[in-house]
Design brief:
Rossmann fold, alpha/beta, single chain, about 280 residues
């Protein structure tokens, strides 16, 4: 049975809620929106044929599969708290005929990884949700062999991520929206490089580096397609609003999407860090 660390219990419930199959149903949208940081992550990882790779917060498994393809004589293990997404990851991996990628339902904060069993840890937007990141990264560090590397992609702060800022403002519809405290688990939790250095340093990592990855991200082929995707991202905020507020929020969201129609798709600017470190 999977044991989730108490600091991540609420996050695990949110990601593994069977009613939230949206994250699985929209897997191609997420993969498309993160195409640029995904490729820069793989470039920075410089995966070798015999590498043993750990993918943290692997979700539907695209990064794990790509890592396994590159580590043709090695292996890739994806871990995630969402059994629902892991089911999809296993299905896609089998469909692709990839035999050196496996998946485990677990919490990287306290999962009993075999010590010094991996050459490389990667993650595409999967490490920002730890309730106790120092504890999680220390556990990940123990799983790496001496000299092992960490390469993770995380979002930069809200000011540099047009997609989240403008979508949030549209859905707010003029009402105050709750703002999580700095460093709280969530998409922007690791946007501050100094905080990331402190967390990784405390976990035993060194030579921490940051690559600035800024690029437009595609959220749909046209306005209606993008609305179907984006409205799912803010479903809770829309559902909890009263009817007049919900109507304003939907109208504002549609207007925001329309202003980002390039004629070749709906694009919002995004900014990520590809963080590198070693043990």
């Amino acid at each position: 049975m999977t044991t989730v660390h108490p600091s991540n219990a609420e996050t695990a419930r949110a990601w593994d809620n069977r009613e939230r199959s949206y994250w699985v149903e929209r897997e191609t949208y997420f993969d498309r929106a993160m195409a640029v940081p995904h490729q820069r992550l793989l470039d920075a990882a410089a995966i070798r044929a015999a590498d043993r790779i750990l993918d943290i917060g692997c979700g539907n498994g695209q990064t794990t599969r790509d890592a396994a393809r590159l580590a043709s004589a090695g292996s890739a293990l994806g871990i995630d708290v969402s059994a629902l997404m892991l089911d999809r990851a296993r299905l896609r991996t089998a469909e692709a005929g990839i035999t050196n990628a496996t998946f485990v339902h677990g919490d990287a904060t306290n999962h009993p990884f075999e010590p010094a069993s991996f050459d490389l840890t990667v993650s595409r937007m999967g490490v920002m949700f730890f309730g106790e990141p120092e504890l999680a990264f220390a556990n990940i560090a123990r799983a790496l062999r001496p000299g092992g590397r960490l390469v993770v992609a995380v979002w930069q702060d809200l000011a540099h991520n047009e997609w989240l800022r403008e979508i949030t403002n549209a859905v707010a519809a003029g009402r105050p929206m709750p703002t999580p405290p700095p460093g709280a688990p969530g998409p922007m939790a690791l946007g501050d490089p100094e905080r990331v250095r402190q967390i990784l340093g405390a976990a035993g990592f060194q030579d921490v580096g940051f690559e600035d990855v800024q690029a437009p991200s595609c959220y749909g082929s046209d306005a209606e397609d993008a609305f179907g995707f984006i409205s799912g991202l803010v479903e809770t905020a829309l559902r909890e609003a009263d009817e007049p507020t919900r109507a304003r929020a939907v109208a504002g969201l549609r207007e925001t999407i329309a202003t980002h129609d390039t004629g070749q798709g709906i694009y919002f600017q995004s900014a990520a860090w590809v963080v590198t470190a070693r043990i």
